[in-house]
Each structure stands twice: as structure tokens, then as C-alpha cells.
Automatic annotation (TrEMBL):
It comes from Helicobacter marmotae. Belongs to the alpha-carbonic anhydrase family. GO terms for molecular function: carbonate dehydratase activity; zinc ion binding. Residues 20-242 form the Alpha-carbonic anhydrase domain. Gene3D superfamilies: Alpha carbonic anhydrase (3.10.200.10). Its EC number is 4.2.1.1. Keywords: Lyase, Metal-binding, Signal, Zinc. Residues 1-19 form the signal peptide. It catalyses: hydrogencarbonate + H(+) = CO2 + H2O. This is carbonic anhydrase. InterPro entries: Alpha_CA_prokaryot-like, CA_dom, CA_dom_sf, Carbonic_anhydrase_a-class. It is an enzyme of class 4 (lyase).
Amino acid sequence: MKRKFLFLILLCFINLAHASDWGYGKENGPNSWASLNPKYAPCKLNELQSPIDISTQHTTPTINQLTILYKNNAKDIINNGHSVQVNFNDAGGITFEDTHYSLVQLHFHTPSETKINHKSFPMEMHLLHKDKQNHLLVLSVLFKEKKENLALKNIVQNIPNNINEPKALTELNVADLLPKKQGYYAFSGSLTTPPCTDNVQWIVLKTPLEASKKQIMSLHKAFGNNARDTQPLHERVIKEAP
């Protein structure tokens, strides 16, 4: 019985180590990701990585080709140890440059990963989408600290206490988590977490939303600092739509 108990404890530690082989600490942080697992090699080898520092003096004007049509259809919320994430089933999505992308999940970074003219924000939300060919698109929303954000309340109040234990979440209107003005910066990039998959379409909404200090700190407390450093541009084009 004792041997079985020790085996179960060892198994738990193995599973925890496997689930947390990367993170944001000194030993497993972004500068080490590529060496932690061969699958994470793109974090170092691929050039067009995210996040980036967007210089508004070096953008290419374009027409707005973004249409957003979300449904109130959240599935659950989970703290995966790296962020608080909300998963969706048939929650609509967006159309960008004549391609439709379905909403898969959203999650948060504190502080923001994206910078605008070298400026960081207290928080950033990434909404991950995919099209029928599994091409990925990330829609980014930046947050500044000010008044309470009513649309965030349902997320903050339901942050799970335990890591990797999903909790049902309903009545989340994703459209309320977006600014009314939907001008954007668009560019090619990657996922900002391992395996740092590239060829990801990025759309960063230009208008930040507001959130209270308490809301931002509640999310930050759940997972800590989880922002990857900005990556070199490598001559990529950044489109700007009004």
C-alpha cells in the first residue's frame, strides 16, 4: 500500500513537470524555450515571431477588412498555469480579408506582450481563431488601468482556484470585451508561447479598453508575469486600418 502511494506521488510530480516544462522563470523562460524541447525550436529558429513593438511611424495604410460576429457561447474557464483561458464552442468568429476564422479560446497576459511605440500596457487579451484549413489568427486587445470593466467581471469572478481544473462558464458576451472602434494593426507573426508556431495572422486593435487595478491584479495573481519579450521585425510589413 505504501509503495503504491509513493508511486502515485511520483506520477503526480512527473505529470506536473511535463505540464510545466516551459514557463516564465529564469530556468524555463522565453530565452530557454527552444532548448527545453525539440518541438519548441521555432521559438529560436523562425524569424517572424511575436510579440512585436509596433511603431506607428512605420505602418502601411490599408482599408478596414475586419468583420466581427461573436455569439454568447462560452464553454469553460481554466487556469492552465500559464494564463487564465476561456474556451468556446460554436461562438462565431471573425472575417478578415475574405477568410472566416472561428473563435477557439481567449487568454490574458500581464503585462502586455505587444508594445505600441515602445509602450507596454498593464494587460493584453489574445483571442485565438482558426479557419477551415487550421490557419491561425490572433486578435489582440490591450487594456489600460482605469475604471472597472463590467464585461470582465464574469471572468475574474470565476478564475479557478486549482490549475488545470476547468470550470463551467456561461453568459459571457465576447463582443463586450472589444472596443467600439475597431481600427487595427495587422501583420504576420507567431504564437507567443511554445511551440511558437509561425504563419499566424495578427490583428492588434488600436483602441485599448479599461480595466480596474483590482481586476488586472486578480488575473495577474492567478498566473504571474507571462509576457514574452518583443521580437525583431525582420522587415515585416505592418498594415494599419482606420
